[in-house]
Amino acid sequence: MTMTQQEPIQAGPLPRDLLHALRDGGYDVSGLAPAPESDTDSDPSDLRPAMPAAGPQQACHVLCAVYRATGDPTIGLWLGSRMQTDLLGLAGLTAMAGPSLGTALRRIARYQKLLAGDRIELRRQGDEAWVCIRPSDPEAPDTRPRIDMELCSLLAFGRQFTRKPLHPLRVSLRIGQPDWHLRYTEAFDCPVRFGEPEDAIVFGRRDLALRLAARVRSGPAGAGAGHAAREARPASASLDDVRAALQALAGDRALSLAAVARHLDISERTLQRRLMAAGTSFRTLCEEARRELAGGYLAGGAMSLGEIAFRLGFDDANSFFRAFRRWTGMTPGDYRRAAAPPPA
């Protein structure tokens, strides 16, 4: 597809892959202006960094700018099919570490829930797995290209990291069939139904069980290193080992004793005995690990509450806000200001 640049595109800091795609399409991206910050934090203290990081919201800012500049109704398909993990930001990096495509999509959906914008919903219907996009403003002029980009980028992510062709069963779209309907079939490489109740990619349930390439690389190819690491661990992990494991796994929403035991390559019973001998509990150590990580993230000053909540396994920024105040007696905003270096 050949595109003609019509006017300089004004947007914020760009995900690298999106920047490259625009350049390849002939767009002038040399004079980019900062995009507006998004209201993602529920903390009454303004904890957002001065410039939002590249990620899903910034990609949407860019898409809106491109759509206004070109008026091309298929621009979302064009950009989404060229996106990689940068478009998904922190969620993409976390998703890559998952064991399967289904786990990766659930992590991306949880991250999107923390942002002010469109939502991703996963559900199963018989042998079908639906990945639905719930737009924040269904009637906005740029909603259609934005949803197209989001659906295409999720499919591109799945194809890249499963290293499989990954053909959906079909794609369901709310819009009526447009004149450019063949572009949808080309982009998704599957049947596309128009005039449906929701916007969704429909996979087979088995597709969600596909292993991600990042995990495959750490499997057979890296089995020797993993085996050596397990052999190097003591038969009964120390309390410091447990704390380190909890910090490494803190982003898991359902962090469990079993998950930590697997991480340390010991039995749950052995881990439970170790905690009892140390006079502590799994829950206490979990809260200590998350509190320590939260303090470091806040002192660093670069993350929003939503990002911190995601990294620590909370459902939303409000839940993290309440937990942090319970842990420290301070709001995250007060803590961040107290930790900030004095002005020069």
Distance between the termini: 52 Å
Going by helix content, strand content and strand pairing, the class is alpha+beta
The description of the largest β-sheet is: 5 strands, mixed
Uncertain segments = 1-13, 32-54, 215-235
The percent range for strand residues is: 5-15%
Strand order of the largest sheet: 1-2-5-3-4
Report on this structure.
With 344 residues, the protein is an alpha+beta fold. Helix content is 50%, strand content 7%. It is globular and about 70 Å long. The termini are far apart. Mean pLDDT is 76; it is low at 1-13, 32-54 and 215-235.
Which features does this protein show?
single chain, alpha+beta, Arc Repressor Mutant, subunit A, 2 domains, 16 helices, 5 strands, disordered N terminus, DNA-binding transcription factor activity
Write the layout of secondary structure elements.
Layout: H1 16-24, H2 56-70, H3 75-80, H4 85-96, H5 101-113, E1 119-125, E2 128-134, H6 143-162, E3 170-172, H7 181-188, E4 192-193, E5 199-204, H8 213-217, H9 223-232, H10 239-248, H11 257-264, H12 268-277, H13 282-300, H14 305-311, H15 317-328, H16 332-339
Parallel strand pairs: 3-4
Antiparallel strand pairs: 1-2, 2-5, 3-5
Helix pairs in contact: 4-5, 10-13, 11-12, 13-16, 14-15
How would you briefly describe this protein structure?
This protein is of the alpha+beta class. It folds into 2 domains: 194 residues, no CATH class; 108 residues, Homeodomain-like (Arc Repressor Mutant, subunit A), CATH 1.10.10. The protein is built from 16 helices and 5 strands.
